[in-house]
Specification:
465 residues, alpha/beta, TIM Barrel, 2 domains, 8-stranded parallel β-sheet, 3-stranded antiparallel β-sheet, 12 helices, 16% strand
């Protein structure tokens, strides 16, 4: 294994190892600070992070507003307070070593307001901002305004080119690095384009080389590229290190950073990681963001798969093969379906899926009455956590609406991520993971249930293992 030399980033010498940002109280100060103390770049999530009361207890994010707009204002306040609290905790634990970034999702509701609010209080404590999930054109301008570096997360050279031409070239001196996130292997939301096959992963090397060639044409040959998604053993990436074609390279660890002593996830969650199989991670498109997403296939995702499978098309008029009257759906007795779909609907209803919910695409999904009430309650309780949400039809605009009907085939992402982050059942909530999560069960480092400290993990990674 080649020696892993320090790299100069944001004005300081650091190991080329970045802790991947994981939202909703997962990339917290208690683990990000120690990552920086070990010499790398710790990443604090500013996506609805936890804040604390005067006794140091986590403040539950409970919403009291009567309207979505009122609840959205509460959410923004929670996010700013939590981001500030977690940065302060990380800074204290970093001991002034390594570096600290905050992570934000451009498609979160109120993203720009949250970023301004956190940086106003923490610009002297952090060195940079990583940002993905969308096209964050204003990221560079905002970060530069506070004198911190920006790290756009992209999944193709084409995406970075668009960002550079439209906005980033005006703030080139504050570009810390470009994070290439593998759209097939990374955890969380993935940047697969419509032209890319989710079932056919591509080798990241030629994609990153294309990005580097493009960056050199822009005068950015010296700016590091961060390889994120699919990174476990550095020895597997040794040919990337000191590679003249690729230039300066760093590596990001998101999933692997979950299993440490300092990691704030529950013991139940930590234990479950060691039993993951290769087929345990599902790349799906159920997220209310509309993006592809990678998560552990558990009861939560199985129910969503079932919900989307129990689906039939309908028409208010007799047309084509939609020629069979469906008279069993209350309030929608005058609709037509295919004869085969009517048979399937009757079978589902006999199994207890007696509640039919209309989707924006002229289909019905069949769920249990209990699930119907849960879906309706979650849609009613929406607090606008996304810039646009297909589950609740919230949008961060003047009308606060996507102008489409709410889609019951998705779910409330804020609710489930808050629950799993605060000791909720791991089988019944969304559990993000990169596709290398199964390595926990194969890597001898974790034998006999061993859980390392962040310092031990970083030291282990530096050996190539």
């Amino acid at each position: 294994m080649k020696p892993l030399d320090a790299i100069r980033l944001a004005g300081r010498e650091v190991l080329p190892l970045i802790e991947g940002g994981k939202g909703i109280a997962i990339s917290a100060g208690v683990s990000s600070g120690p990552w920086a103390a070990a010499g790398g770049i710790g990443t604090i999530s500013a996506v609805n992070a936890d804040s604390y009361d005067s006794q140091g207890n986590v403040i539950p994010q409970i919403y009291h507003g009567k309207t979505r707009r009122d609840r959205h204002e509460e959410l923004v306040r929670y996010a700013i307070d939590g981001g500030i609290a977690q940065v302060q905790k990380a800074f204290d634990l970093s001991k002034g070593l390594g570096g600290l970034n905050i992570n934000i999702l451009w498609e979160m509701g109120g993203a720009e307001r949250v970023l301004h609010g956190v940086l106003e209080k923490t610009k002297d404590l952090v060195q940079g901002v990583t940002c993905g999930a969308g096209m964050p054109y204003r990221l560079a301008e905002i970060a530069a305004g506070y004198g911190v570096y920006y790290y756009p997360i992209i999944s193709s050279a084409r995406a970075f080119s668009a960002l550079w031409r439209r906005a980033y070239k005006k703030f080139s001196e504050f570009l810390g690095a470009v994070v290439y996130e593998d759209p097939w292997l990374a955890g969380g939301h993935n940047g697969l384009s419509n032209s890319e096959d989710p079932e056919v992963p591509e080798d990241p090397y030629p994609r990153v080389k294309l990005l580097r060639d493009q960056m050199r044409e822009m005068g950015l040959g010296h700016v590091p590229i961060v390889m994120a998604g699919g990174v476990w053993y550095l020895r597997d990436w040794e040919h990337w290190i000191d590679n003249e074609e690729l230039g300066p390279i760093m590596f990001q660890f998101g999933t692997r950073a979950l299993l440490t002593k300092e990691s704030p996830i529950s013991d139940q969650w930590k234990l479950s990681l060691t039993s993951l199989k290769k087929e345990s991670i599902l790349l799906h498109r159920f997220s209310p963001t509309g993006f592809y997403s990678s998560a552990v296939k558990n009861n939560f995702l199985t129910e969503l798969e079932e919900r989307n499978t129990h689906q039939i098309a309908f028409s208010p008029e007799l047309v084509g093969d939609l020629d069979t009257l469906l008279e069993v759906v209350p309030k929608h007795k005058g609709v037509f379906v295919t004869s085969g779909d009517r048979t399937r609907a009757m079978e589902w209803m006999a199994q207890g899926y007696t509640a039919a919910l209309k989707t924006p695409d002229c289909t019905f999904i069949f769920v249990t009455p209990e699930k119907r009430e849960e879906i309706r309650r979650d849609q009613t309780d929406c607090m606008g956590c996304l810039s646009q949400c297909r589950f609740s039809n919230w949008a961060d605009n003047e009308k606060n609406s996507t102008r489409r009907k709410a889609d019951p085939r998705s779910f409330c992402i804020q609710k489930t991520l808050q629950e799993i982050a605060h000791d909720g059942p791991i089988e019944d909530n969304l559990m993000f993971s990169g596709h290398n999560g199964y390595q926990f069960g194969l890597d001898p480092f974790y034998s006999n249930g061993y859980i390392p400290s962040v310092k031990e993990l970083v030291e282990r990674i530096c050996t190539g293992d």
